[in-house]
UniProtKB/TrEMBL annotation:
One of its GO terms (biological process) is cell wall organization. Signal peptide: none annotated. Belongs to the transglycosylase MltG family. It catalyses: a peptidoglycan chain = a peptidoglycan chain with N-acetyl-1,6-anhydromuramyl-[peptide] at the reducing end + a peptidoglycan chain with N-acetylglucosamine at the non-reducing end. This is Endolytic murein transglycosylase. GO terms for molecular function: lytic endotransglycosylase activity.
């Protein structure tokens, strides 16, 4: 009986010592994963697609963000989060603990990059911007991207996004905006389809960059179409010549249109063809599409640049001729001021 009691006492003692050791080990582990890390500066850390936790842990130690990659693997094993880390680009704060590093890689938001696609650019010009972006990956689309099928805007994306994915996203955005705005269009518009709306919006976009003028110019073009008048828009001539690229003289300077170019018939030259051009002449933004589908009803059928970034509008040819004369006078005065300044 005494032997049994002694054995039980020994077992109790061993359990106590083992429990104490286990508890001490757990406390040590918790302290190690929650204490400040060795890094003294902010890090941008990238987890590549398909990368394993082990390789991520090794790189975190190599870059001086954590002191021991084995602790990361142990924590992930205990938490069951070995496969939970996200692909992306993350900001890790100075002295980030192992626990906080794991939280960022599992639950945190990755860094977002942005790309701006301006209104009024042709598809070829916008694709060049996408192709040149240093963060996007992969090849450009092999199939033709139609003119006017991209929605100009600023887009946010994560590292690892491909150029194909971004182009598809921009096209879907244009389709969504067009569907939304077409449903709320005004009645009796001389545009038979959403595609026609994009064509007319592309002309409006090229004619003015002034936000408040889009609906007025759209209304002017709608009025001309309703009256059977030609649109007579200079940007449509340029698109038929150079697909929207600027025109230059032999000295490499930007130039205006030649009379022969105005008289040249193409599928886009609205001085020579009735109705709308064959395709859009650029990628219009949301505001230009909205303006075409709900234009101002002003009765204007003529407009000319005012020399200050906007336009002068007229309902009659006589009024338009006076506006043209005013613009030419403004031009002459500007030339004189420039010469006086020289």
């Amino acid at each position: 009986m005494k032997f049994v009691k002694a054995l039980l006492s020994l077992l109790v003692l061993l359990l106590f010592v083992g429990g104490a050791a286990l508890g001490g080990g757990w406390l040590w582990f918790q302290n190690e994963i929650t204490k400040a890390g060795p890094s003294t500066q902010e890090h941008v850390f990238v987890v590549e697609p398909g990368e394993t936790l082990s390789s991520v842990a090794v790189r975190l130690e190599q870059e001086g963000i954590v002191s021991d990659d084995r602790l990361i693997r142990l924590k992930a094993r205990l938490d069951g989060t070995e496969l939970a880390i996200k692909t992306g680009e993350f900001i890790l704060e100075p002295q980030a603990s192992i626990a906080s590093v794991m939280d960022v890689l599992i639950e945190g938001k990755s860094v977002l990059h942005k790309i701006t696609l301006p209104e009024g650019r042709t598809t070829a010009q916008l694709l060049k911007i996408i192709e040149a972006d240093p963060i996007l990956t992969g090849a450009m689309p092999e199939t033709e991207v139609p003119e006017g099928s991209l929605l100009p805007d600023t887009y946010l994306f994560q590292r690892g996004t491909t150029r194909m994915q971004l182009v598809e996203r921009v096209q879907k955005a244009q389709s969504a905006v067009l569907e939304e705005l077409w449903a709320g269009r005004a009645e009796d518009l001389p545009v038979a389809s959403p595609e026609d709306a994009v064509i007319l919006a592309s002309i409006v976009e090229k004619e003015t960059g002034v936000f408040g003028e889009r609906a007025k110019i759209a209304g002017l073009f709608v009025t001309r179409l309703k009256r059977g008048m030609r649109l007579e828009s200079d940007p449509t001539i340029i698109y038929g010549i150079s697909k929207g690229e600027p025109l230059y003289n032999k000295r490499g300077q930007r130039r205006t249109l030649y009379r022969s170019e105005i008289d040249r018939k193409t599928d886009w030259n609205t001085y020579q063809i009735d109705g709308l051009p064959k395709t859009p002449i650029c990628n219009p933004g949301r505001e230009a599409i909205a303006a075409v589908l709900n234009p101002d009803e002003t009765g204007h059928i003529f407009f000319v640049a005012d020399g200050k970034g906007g336009h002068l509008f007229a309902k009659t040819l006589a009024e338009h001729n006076r506006n043209v004369a005013a613009y030419r006078k403004y031009e002459r005065e500007e030339i004189q001021r420039e010469r006086a300044g020289e």
